[in-house]
Specification:
single chain, alpha+beta, five-stranded antiparallel sheet
């Protein structure tokens, strides 16, 4: 069995500018999370949970317009970047980066995590 915390810890350690990573259900409940600085945890947990409704709407819209399953969703703001990648139908993995963080490495790490976790989430 894969240890979710170890997978997330590896992402945080290998991605420059990463604030944290977590696995969350589309219901907004976190399965596991790792934060580089625990003081940012409360705000980021809430932010990712709030984005779940946006993610569900984007997922539905993608299907309705014929683009198929939504795989990845990016929210880029002035002070940070949220990368979200689906793990099966009801879960996703999120990575939160500083604006100067390594975006390409973050995307790579999320895809790698998806492959590691596919059996656990029946992808």
């Amino acid at each position: 069995m894969i240890n979710f915390r170890e997978v997330l810890q590896g992402i945080v350690e290998r991605t420059d500018g990463c604030l944290g990573s977590l696995i969350m259900g589309t219901d907004g409940i976190a399965v596991e999370k790792v934060w580089k600085n625990p003081s940012t945890q409360a705000n980021m947990d809430a932010a990712v949970a709030e984005y779940t409704s946006l993610l569900r709407n984007a997922k539905r819209t993608n299907r309705e317009i014929g683009f198929g399953k939504l795989r990845e969703f990016v929210l880029s703001g002035e002070n940070g970047i949220f990368l979200l990648r689906f793990l099966g139908e009801y879960y996703f993995i999120a990575l939160i980066l500083l604006p100067e963080g390594n975006f390409g490495r973050g995307r790579y790490e999320l895809r790698r995590a998806e492959l590691l976790l596919e059996k656990e989430f029946a992808i």
